[in-house]
C-alpha cells in the first residue's frame, strides 16, 4: 500500500507527457509531414533562373546557395507550373549587415499573365546590424496588385543562425503560410474575394536581390556591398502539386489534389496561429486605414488584433490624420523584371 501513491503519481505524469506529446504533434505537423512528401534534388524539379555563378548547387543537388553581390543577384525556378499544391524550403538567411537585401520564396505566373497575374509571396527583408530580419507575406489574384494583401511579422528566432522551414499550402479553398510548421496566416477563398483569389497555374521561384529603394525603412538604408556576397542557403526543397502543361494550361488526368483539399487547420493549430499573430504581427492590410478607409471585402476584423496594431502605429491602423507628411509615409516599389523580384511590394516607414 505504501507504493500505491507513488505509482499513481507516476501514472499521472506519464499521462500528462502523452497528452503533451499529442498536442505537440498537432501544433507542429504540416502537410509535407502528413503526406510524407519527398524532398527533391535541384535537377529533379528546378532550373537556374539568373545570376550565373551566384547560384551554387551543393550536396548532390540537395542544397542551393543564392548570392547577391555588386554585379547581380540570383535565383531559380521550378521546371513545371502548378495548379495548387504544397511548396516548401528550409532557408538560412545572410547575417550581419543586410539592409536592402531581399530574399524571396514565392509563386507567380507573371511571365505568362502579364496583366492579370497571380502571386503568393514569402519575402524576407534585411536590416542594419543589430536589427532583426522582417518577414512579409502577400497574395495577388488576377492582377490585383493595386490591392496588396500584405502582412508583416517579426520572428521568434534569428533566421540567419540556422535553417528554418517556410511553406505554402495552396488549395481550391484556402492558402496557408507556415513557418517551422506553425501556421502564421490563412487566406480563405470567399465569394467577396471573387476573381482575386489566385486560381491560375504558377511556378515556384527563389531569389535574392537588391531592394535598396524600399526594403529597409522605405529605402533609408541601402545594400552595402562592402559586406557582400550576401548568401541565402536553401535545402529540403518540396514541390508537390498538380503540374500543368504551360501551353494548354491543363493538368494531367492523373492529377489529384483531393488529399490537399481535405487538409485544414486543427483547433490546436489555430491556437498556435493566434499565439503567433498576437506576439509577432506588425502590419496587416486589413487594418490599414490610410490605404483602405474601408477594409477589403474579404477582411474579417479581429478587435484584439486591431487594438494591438493601433497601439503599434495609431496613424496607419487608427485612421487618424497625418499632421506631417514625413510620419507614416508609405513607399511603393514595382519590380521591373520577374527575374529579380515579385511584382509589387508595399512597405511602411
Distance between the termini: 69 Å
Mean pLDDT: 84
* CA gyration radius, whole angstroms: 21 Å
Structural category is alpha+beta
Report the helical percentage: 10-25%
Low-pLDDT regions? 7-27, 323-349
Number of contiguous helices: 7
Q: How many distinct beta strands?
A: 17
- Sheet-strand content, in percent, reads 25-35%
Task: Give the biggest sheet.
Answer: 8 strands, antiparallel
Helix/strand order, N-terminal first:
HHHEEEEEEEEEEEEEEHHEHHEE
Q: What multimeric state do the chains show? A: single chain
Shape: globular
| Strand numbers in spatial order across the main sheet | 1-4-13-6-7-8-9-15
Question: Can I get a quick summary?
Answer:
The chain has 349 residues and is α+β, with helices and mostly antiparallel strands. The protein contains seven helices and 17 strands.
What does this protein structure show overall?
- Residues 320-332 have a biased composition (Basic residues).
- Its EC number is 2.4.1.207.
- It is a single chain.
- This protein is an alpha+beta fold and 349 residues long.
- The protein is 19% helix and 33% strand.
- It is built from seven helices and 17 strands.
- The strands form three sheets. It has an eight-stranded antiparallel beta sheet. A seven-stranded antiparallel beta sheet has the order 2-3-14-5-10-11-12. Strands 16-17 form a two-stranded antiparallel sheet.
- Strand 7 and strand 8 form a beta hairpin.
- Helix 1 packs across helix 5 (267-280).
Amino acid at each position: 500500500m505504501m507504493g500505491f501513491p507513488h505509482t499513481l503519481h507516476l501514472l499521472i505524469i506519464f499521462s500528462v507527457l502523452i497528452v503533451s506529446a499529442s498536442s505537440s504533434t498537432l501544433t507542429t505537423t504540416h502537410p509535407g509531414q502528413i503526406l510524407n512528401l519527398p524532398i527533391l534534388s535541384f535537377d529533379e524539379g528546378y532550373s537556374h533562373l539568373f545570376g550565373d555563378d551566384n547560384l551554387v548547387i551543393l550536396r548532390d543537388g540537395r542544397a542551393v546557395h543564392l548570392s547577391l553581390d555588386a554585379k547581380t543577384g540570383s535565383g531559380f525556378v521550378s521546371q513545371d507550373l502548378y495548379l495548387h499544391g504544397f511548396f516548401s524550403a528550409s532557408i538560412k538567411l545572410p547575417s550581419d549587415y543586410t539592409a536592402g537585401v531581399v530574399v524571396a520564396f514565392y509563386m507567380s505566373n507573371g511571365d505568362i499573365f502579364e496583366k492579370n497575374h497571380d502571386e503568393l509571396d514569402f519575402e524576407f527583408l534585411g536590416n542594419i546590424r543589430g536589427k532583426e530580419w522582417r518577414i512579409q507575406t502577400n497574395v495577388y489574384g488576377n492582377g490585383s496588385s493595386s490591392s496588396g494583401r500584405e502582412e508583416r511579422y517579426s520572428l521568434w528566432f534569428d533566421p540567419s543562425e540556422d535553417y528554418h522551414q517556410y511553406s505554402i499550402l495552396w488549395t481550391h479553398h484556402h492558402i496557408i503560410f507556415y513557418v517551422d510548421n506553425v501556421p502564421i496566416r490563412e487566406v480563405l477563398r470567399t465569394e467577396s474575394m471573387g476573381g482575386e483569389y489566385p486560381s491560375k497555374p504558377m511556378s515556384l521561384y527563389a531569389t535574392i536581390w537588391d531592394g535598396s529603394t524600399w526594403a529597409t525603412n522605405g529605402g533609408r538604408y541601402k545594400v552595402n556591398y562592402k559586406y557582400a556576397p550576401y548568401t541565402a542557403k536553401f535545402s529540403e526543397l518540396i514541390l508537390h502539386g498538380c503540374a500543368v502543361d504551360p501551353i494548354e494550361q491543363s493538368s494531367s488526368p492523373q492529377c489529384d489534389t483531393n488529399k490537399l483539399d481535405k487538409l485544414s487547420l486543427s483547433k490546436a493549430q489555430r491556437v498556435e496561429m493566434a499565439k503567433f499573430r498576437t506576439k509577432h504581427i506588425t502590419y496587416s492590410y486589413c487594418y490599414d486605414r490610410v490605404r483602405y478607409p474601408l477594409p477589403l471585402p474579404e477582411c474579417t476584423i479581429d478587435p484584439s488584433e486591431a487594438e494591438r496594431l493601433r497601439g503599434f502605429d495609431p496613424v496607419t491602423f487608427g485612421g487618424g490624420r497625418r499632421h506631417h507628411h514625413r510620419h507614416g509615409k508609405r513607399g511603393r516599389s514595382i519590380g521591373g523584371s520577374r527575374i529579380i523580384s515579385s511584382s509589387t511590394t508595399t512597405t511602411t516607414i
